[in-house]
Amino acid sequence: MSSLLYDISDGTAIQCRPFQRVRLYERVSTSKQARHGNLSCQARATRRAVHDRHLQVHDQFLEVAPATSLNGRTDFLAAIDASRRDGLAIVTHDRTRYIRCADPNNSEGVPFLYQWDELLEASRGVQLLTLIPPTASPNQRRSSRIRRSGKAGRSPKPARAAPGSLKKRRQALALRLRVLHRAGVAAKAISRRLAVPETTIRRWLGRTR
What we know:
46% of the residues lie in helices and 15% in strands. It is α/β, with parallel strands linked by helices. The protein folds into 2 domains: 4-149, Resolvase, N-terminal catalytic domain (Rossmann fold); 165-208. Strands 2-1-6-5-3-4 form a 6-stranded mixed beta sheet, with helices on both faces.
């Protein structure tokens, strides 16, 4: 598979180096979508697509927030700040993960100029990349998502976990939780970032006290 990614600012195709480290970002607009597994499905599919391009995932930021502005986009802004510090590019599936048109009657349309200005100003000095061209039409974006999930209208069927893999994943999540908690991140924000229910986060925090 080609290792091409696309720059959100001008649509330029970027040829990434083999095993280049990148930071992933995925987003859904509502808590209902997150509860139905849309966010975790996106995260797995983007991670697979990046691995198929022979790139290395440094970390991944997950968020539940509308993309019509940067208000409430704490995890996205945190990802940008992290990339300013370490120089890693941020990668997501398509342009709508970063920004959507503010017109409620045309959410799949081209965002307004002021929205682009806000996004590019906030991400100054950080590469925002996508797996498909940012100029892709709504049908092209949907087709790409269907190919990634394997079946139209369905989330990919999770593969059977290897022995011990669930325990390792929990340990990794617990480690990230402790790091975020010590950094002063609230339980609700940790829940969004790790795509784990807030009640579970609070239960885990209770055990670490």
